[in-house]
Amino acid sequence: MKRLIVPIIMAAVLVAGCKKTPTEVRVTGISLSDEAVQIVAGKTITLEATLEPSDATETTLLFSSNNLGVATVVSDGLTGTVTAVSPGEATITVSTISGSAFKNCAVTVVSDITNIGSPETANCYIITEPGVFGFKPFKGNSTTLVGNVSSVSVLWETVNSETAPASGTVITEPRYKDGMVAFKVPDNVVPGNALIAALDDKEKILWSWHIWVTGERVGEVTMANNAGIFMDRNVGAIGNTPGDARCNGMMYQWGRKDPFMGCVRYGRPLGRYAATAEPEESVPAGATLTIEYTIAHPTAWGLRDEKNCDWLSTGDYTTDGVRWAQNTAGKTIYDPCPAGWQIPSNSGIWNTAGLGNFFTGDVVYDLENFGIVIGKPYCEPDSWWPAAGELANDGIRGADDYLPGVYGVYWTGATTGMGGGVNNAGRDFMFSLKSKTVHQGNNDYKQFGHPVRCRKVDSND
Description:
Elements: H1 5-17, E1 29-32, E2 36-40, E3 44-52, E4 61-65, E5 71-76, E6 79-84, E7 88-96, E8 102-110, E9 114-115, E10 124-127, E11 131-135, E12 151-158, E13 172-177, E14 180-185, E15 192-199, E16 205-213, E17 220-223, E18 229-231, E19 252-253, H2 291-296, E20 341-342, H3 348-352, E21 358-359, E22 364-366, E23 371-374, E24 379-380, E25 383-386, E26 391-392, E27 395-396, E28 407-416, E29 425-432, E30 437-445, E31 449-450, E32 455-456
Parallel strand pairs: 2-8, 9-11, 10-16
Antiparallel strand pairs: 1-3, 3-6, 4-7, 5-6, 7-8, 11-14, 12-15, 13-14, 15-16, 17-18, 17-24, 19-31, 20-32, 21-30, 22-23, 23-25, 26-27, 28-29, 29-30
């Protein structure tokens, strides 16, 4: 029996010596879960690689980006996590260590900011939903940049009530990003208004824009006889419910792009909407109060020049008539209406629709809700016009005939002479609940503050 041991051991050794060393199977091809992707800045995606052949023994892959400023990638075996950094294009390359195979994925990173300034720019932007929004810093209604923007600031917010909201209620997170003036509307949208400004490196305001958060679509009212299409509410209004003073909206001095607080109630005591910040002190008309000054100080109210009754002094009894006037180039850079809308070019719109110069016809004078309803045959659907009062000199005009709830007056872009001046008065649409009259060709001092009801661009007037 002992002699059998040696042959058995030798046989075992021979069998063991016949086993083959494993053969390396190289990767000949790589496929990816995506070969071209678009990612929002700040977001991530996962790329998954599949090797060919399936029994390849080379399973370590390299993931790389050719533009780390746009997209980065971190690998984990056959998976890579791509992070979008900033808008632009990058190529993610997946390859074997040996270089036997590779595959590219084209990555396009887009801004996380919804551009509301394209295709049209404006001095006022309507927002109806939550999100991050922005626009290139163009002067309103133009393609002229405001200058070198260093920072962005929210100057004020209001919810059209006598109580000021907390900062960040209407819009928040102002910043200059991706070449845009950007901000966020919180998930719980609170209708209101805000003024946002672009500043240079010395904190000088280069331009400012009105952000009008409506939370709903702004409706349209079609005037009779092709007289045009109007908004169903005033600029800056929260809704268009009769009797609700939040519907008064914002006030404007003639020819200025930036809004001022509207009247918070009808009748007395007089009061205006509360905001998160107080306005600058009023400025007397004269050498200081120029258009350039109002751009750099958009919350400063301009007092009346005693000669031309304008906030913009010329040294005599005349003023210009072009700050809001439409021309062949379209809206002026000071027109306060949102994209697609403009200041009514003249007061004849209402006359064309059938409301005469002094009109006492089929208009509903709603004394209980402090406004008028204009309906058929002059427009469709019915349109609510609150008696929002007016601002005069340095506050609300408080005489009984001009109180909020009694007197309503709306600017147009037209001008006329009054009191010996040339173009020193703005033309407007006025009504009185006290006398129950509508005057569609009224004249008023340009220094006064009135609401604005915008007309759709290219609708007849």
